Amino acid sequence: ERRSVLAITEPPRFHSQAKGKNVRLDAHSRKATRRNSFCNGVTFTNRPIHLYEKVRLKLVAVHHGWSGALRFGFTIHDPSQMSSDEIPKYACPDLVTRPGYWAKALPERFAVRDNILAFWVDRHGRVFYSINDEEPILFHCGIKVSGPLWALIDVYGITHEVQILDSMFAETMTTARLSTARLSTCLPQSNHDSANFNNNELENNQVVAKIANLNLSRVPGLATDNHIIPCCPNRRQRAQGVPAFLDTDLRFHPTRGPDITFSQDRMVACTNWQESNRTLVFSDRPLHIGESLFVEVGHLGLPYYGALSFGITSCDPSTLRTNELPADPDFLLDRKEYWVVYRAFPVLSSGDILSFMVLPNGEVHHGVNGASRGMLMCVDTSQSLWVFFTIHGVINQLKILGTVQSSPVTVSPSGSPGGSQYDSDSDMAFSVNRSSSASESSLVTAPSSPLSPPISPVFPPPEPSSSKNGECTVCFDSEVDTVIYTCGHMCLCNTCGLKLKKQLNACCPICRRVIKDVIKIYRP
């Protein structure tokens, strides 16, 4: 019966009249594009949607730089009876607070270009959706199905353009299949309001980005591109503590993410701030032990989140291909090479100068504007190590200033250079891959016991039976006998570890990474 209905029914299109003021439709009303801003992108289908009929949308264009993604759902109100004045800026919360409208946000992790979103409503008033025909996700309940329903689509936030595809009908969700359907991790209403507020603030400051575009010529050798908005280099004087003379033989490697543009000398990497997903950049040679690398960051000066990731790898970038470089560097951790990623940088200002140095004992230390910020991670220094970064959000430029070879560093018994604390002013959040063989494994160690280069195995004499391995960092009473998975820190007794594991969103007391398990250690 559903197939016969589909055969005689015209595929849905966007309603030609009932749409937000920023929506532009193609000649066939199958493609909707939001021309300006982040909002005023509300659209409807031109006809009611049948029960179990999948409304299929292809995400044609996704432009990062806003908060939030597509909103979608259903309404009992005929769009043909609406005037343009009745269509608000937002589906959430403006429409969903009115009777007869149901809509929620697509999680941003699914808002990827060329993904196909399908959503439908069953006879019980339940709305399901799927991405690329994968398993359905229960999205909404309580839809009124006694009358006709039109699809509601808000081309919002990072979602810039969508296309309606031909309809299909969904299978009936049996009780067994419904029990396995995932529940959608939808944003609560307060988060919709927060996204709207953040985007309004961002839009009010767009003039900053336009002014910054005038500084394009200050980046030597960078081709003019209206989509690339560089930061203003040399906006501030060089910070104190940065050496006056730097070697400039280290540059960015030609292998880079497709959303990165280099200057002619490959000393400056810029992103397209409107769509910058894959922004991995590498150094063109390994960083020497004891060598300090200085880089300057630039951003748009807008009130939007930005992320700068830093990492160390044993993988020679010349062996990589552009199509192998992911948007999220954590996907690199599954490769056979040695990869370490650090994300928890504090909020940076345009013109801030960061420094990174690998010590002989494997500790990687960093500084900001000449001030030491302590240790980021421990790495295996027995192999050549390249540096890499990812640039996202308002961080839209990274400039290599140069390197300097430091004099030998005196390491205190705690493992940190004398006169500096190892604790960073931000949480030490990093990921390390584990290779298949034990000799290649990358261990995550506590800051008090950094990883040393594996030169030759040395077995210390057995400790006396009365010796303890330190006190538990929770109860300060029992002996430490438990290691945390996956971060590897050994700082708890088994009793406290089991209690901590049961807590919601439990995290390591040292590095704040999520606790997946606790493992008791038995000593001979």
Automatic annotation (TrEMBL):
InterPro entries: B30.2/SPRY_sf, Neuralized, NHR_dom, Znf_RING, Znf_RING/FYVE/PHD
PROSITE patterns documented for this protein: NHR, ZF_RING_2
EC number(s) stated in the UniProt entry for this protein: 2.3.2.27
Ranges where the NHR domain occurs: 11-167, 249-403
Subcellular locations according to the entry: Cytoplasm
SUPFAM superfamilies the UniProt entry points to: RING/U-box
A Gene Ontology molecular function term of the record: ubiquitin protein ligase activity
Catalytic activity: S-ubiquitinyl-[E2 ubiquitin-conjugating enzyme]-L-cysteine + [acceptor protein]-L-lysine = [E2 ubiquitin-conjugating enzyme]-L-cysteine + N(6)-ubiquitinyl-[acceptor protein]-L-lysine
Gene3D superfamilies linked: 2.60.120.920, Zinc/RING finger domain, C3HC4 (zinc finger)
Chain spans, region Disordered: 441-468
Pfam families in the cross-refs: Neuralized, zf-C3HC4_3
Top EC category: transferase
Biased composition (Pro residues): 450-464
Keyword entries, A-Z: Cytoplasm, Metal-binding, Notch signaling pathway, Phosphoprotein, Repeat, Transferase, Ubl conjugation pathway, Zinc, Zinc-finger
Associated pathway: Protein modification; protein ubiquitination
Domain RING-type: 472-512
PANTHER family, per database record: E3 UBIQUITIN-PROTEIN LIGASE NEURL1B, NEURALIZED
Entry protein name: E3 ubiquitin-protein ligase NEURL1B
Organism of derivation: Pterocles gutturalis
